[in-house]
Amino acid sequence: MKYSIFSLLSQAFQGNKGWSTAWRDAQPKDEYDVIIVGGGGHGLATAHYLAKEHGLTNVAVLEKGYIGSGNVGRNTTIIRSNYLLPGNTPFYEWSLKLWEGLEQDINFNAMVSQRGVINLFHSDAQRDAFARRGNAMRLNGVDSELLDREQVRQIAPYLDFDNARFPVKGGLLQPRGGTVRHDAVAWGYARAASQRGVDICQNCEVTGVRIENGKIIGVETTKGFIRAKKVGFAAAGNSSRVAAMAGLRLPIESHVLQAFVSEGVKPLIDTVITFGAGHFYVSQSDKGGLVFGGDIDGYNSYAQRGSMPLVEHLMEEGVAMIPMLSRLRFLRSWGGIMDMSMDGSPIIDKTPIEGLYLNAGWCYGGFKATPASGWCFAHTIARDEPHKLNAAFRLDRFATGHLIDEKGQGATPNLH
Fold first, then answer.
1. pLDDT at 380 (0 to 100)
2. Is 84 within 8 Å of 225 (Cβ atoms)?
3. What is the DSSP string of 168-211?
4. CB 168 within 8 Å of CB 148
5. pLDDT of the residue at 146
6. How far apart are CA 54 and CA 382, in angstroms?
7. Per-residue exposure over 123-149, b if at least 16 CB sit within 10 Å of its own CB, e if not
8. Nearest Cα to 351, choosing from 213, 209, 215?
9. What are phi and psi of 171, to 5 degrees?
10. What is the pLDDT of residue 261?
11. The pLDDT of residue 326
């Protein structure tokens, strides 16, 4: 069923009794051309683009839980492409362009809202660094604007401009950045892939990987063995666990990233704002709640929950940036498992095992990269070679020294 104003009117007169299910809850077949392990945003996007761009429809997405139960439904919904380094800038810009046409592509309302993203700066040195990033963005055809103090005040008068410790001196604005409804992305990609013949298999956990003569032949699951010519891992924070089944040790660590939402308030924040004196970002949802997050928990964990010290840390940063937040009640929090790579940049590449491909190491950038990640991963799987947009995201860069260290922290995953 195609969603449109006409189908909406038709169903209104039928009492909304004729809607079909969004996607088929398929049972796995014995064999596929491609199996994608992980039914999050990246896995579902990969399946969609495999079918749409490469004509591969004998594809299965295996998800151990339900669609939307992982990081794609546990994030702060921000999209942007304000990166500095050559390996990142074109990739994330392509992702933002795909976001801009996503709803028409998948025929699903993902609530793409290009409300702008402002990164605040609080010192002369930080201003110079942001000016450099903005210039690099503009040289690559990416929109950016360096704002002074008064320009930021006009957009966000609720910020604490006069705090002697963290005075707001300006910000770097990307007008095309914004937010997208996270779980709608999962549902939309699942629906689009299913309509093209892809099997979406929920509650089908991968428990083992079969390899013969250096080539993958299939995966063991809770629903039995499934043969495959090619297998792609897109398991986010569980990538290390899944890769270990194939005998691979990945250069990533798993950490918890918490997100929070406040009680609903009248329209207040109409952009995305990030704190320059700490790691804190906030936007306002369509329901009125303020959605915010910041640093990962410093310890390794596979739990989808966080620690109280990090909650206190984020609240302090939020109030330092917007003092009025101290009067709000915060309703709930949730956590996603972050696969933190050694240099803070992702991995989209072939593995040493023939027919096995890897999509991992997304750190904080996973949600905003969803369309481009799926698009490039689909190309890598279908063509058996990386696309030029993900050619820099090689698995062996940690051995060769060709790192993409956007934050300049070195091989310290917990700091990226």
1. 98
2. no
3. --EEEEETT-EE--HHHHHHHHHHHHHHTT-EEE-S--EEEEEE
4. no
5. 98
6. 7
7. eeebbebbeebbebbeebebbbebbee
8. 215
9. -165, 165
10. 96
11. 94
Q: Tell me the Cα Rg of the chain.
A: 21
At residue 414, the pLDDT reads 85
Helix (H) or strand (E) segment spanning residue 134: helix 124-139
Do residues 240 and 248 touch, judged by C-beta distance below 8 A? no
**Sequence-distant (≥ 6) Cβ neighbours of residue 158 within 8 angstroms:** 268, 269, 322, 324
Task: Classify residue 413 as exposed, middle or buried by CB count within 10 Å of its CB (0-12, 13-18, 19+).
Answer: buried
- Which residue carries 């989209």 as its tokens? 348
Q: List the structure tokens of 142.
A: 């990416």
Give mean pLDDT in consecutive 10-residue pieces for the chain, a chain of 416 residues.
91 91 95 98 98 98 95 94 96 98 97 98 96 97 97 96 90 98 96 97 98 98 98 97 96 94 96 96 96 93 89 95 94 92 96 98 96 98 97 94 91 87
Q: What is the model's pTM?
A: 0.96
> What pLDDT does residue 304 have?
85
Length of the chain: 416
Question: Is-contact 367 338, C-beta < 8 A?
Answer: no
Locus of tokens 């299910």: 21
Q: Which two tokens stand for residue 200?
A: 């979406």
- Token pair recorded at residue 217: 């032949």
In one-letter notation, the amino acid at residue 357 is Y
